[in-house]
Structure formats: C-alpha cells, structure tokens
Write a structure and sequence with these properties.
The protein is mostly beta strands and 119 residues long. The chain is built from no helices and eleven strands. The N and C termini lie far apart (37 Å).
C-alpha cells in the first residue's frame, strides 16, 4: 500500500488549497479513505472520510462547510478541497486507509503534506 500526498503549502487566512492523495497497492475503489491532520503538540485528528463510492462523507465539526472530501476511483486519488482556511488549520495533513484484520484494522498512512495558514 502506498499513499502519496501533495498540494500543501503556505496560504493566507481565507485562502484555499486542494490536497491530493495518490493511492496504489490495493483495490482503491473498495476502500474507505480519510484525511487526518496533526498539529505540533496536538493529537492526530480525523478531518474527513469518504466511503468507497463517494456517496457518504463525514467531517469534523471544525471544518464543516469549508472542506470537501472527494475521490476519483478511475484515478485512484482522493482529494481534500480546503476553503476559508484559518490559522488553526495549520498542520501536517495525512492520507489514510485501512484493511480489516482478524481482530481489528490495520492502518496505512502517507508521509503527509504540510499546510500552513498565516498572514
């Protein structure tokens, strides 16, 4: 399993970024995908997730109405469109998927992409 994120950077408050996560090594079209973020000194936080066909999405309350998760199963890619960015959105954003194993799940992570929101 390989997950490669891109699209991070430095943006001013109120700006937008679009993150991408290119996936390989598993059957992408049947996998739930998620974006997490981790800010310095804070715990990793689930930001958004999307089911295998894209019909169901969930978001943490702090990003509802500003972020949109989507996927293109033909391109094995999941996206996170981030609008109206705030300084508190500054974090490393990580792409995630998982496989069900006998007594739980095994998580897979990308290397992360840094998002910095600052004037």
């Amino acid at each position: 399993v390989q997950l490669v994120e891109s699209g991070g950077g430095l943006v001013q408050p109120g700006g937008s970024l679009r993150l991408s996560c290119a996936a390989s090594g598993f059957t992408f079209s049947t996998a739930e995908m998620s974006w997490y973020r981790q800010a310095p000194g804070k715990e990793r936080e689930l930001v958004a997730r999307i089911n295998s066909d894209g019909a169901t999405t969930n978001y943490v309350d702090s990003v509802k109405g500003r972020f949109t998760i989507s996927r293109d199963n033909a391109k094995n890619t999941v996206y996170l469109q981030m609008n109206s960015l705030k300084p508190e959105d500054t974090a490393v954003y990580l792409c995630n998927t998982y496989a069900r194993v006998l007594f739980g799940r095994r998580d897979y992570w990308g290397q992360g992409t840094q998002v910095a929101v600052s004037s």
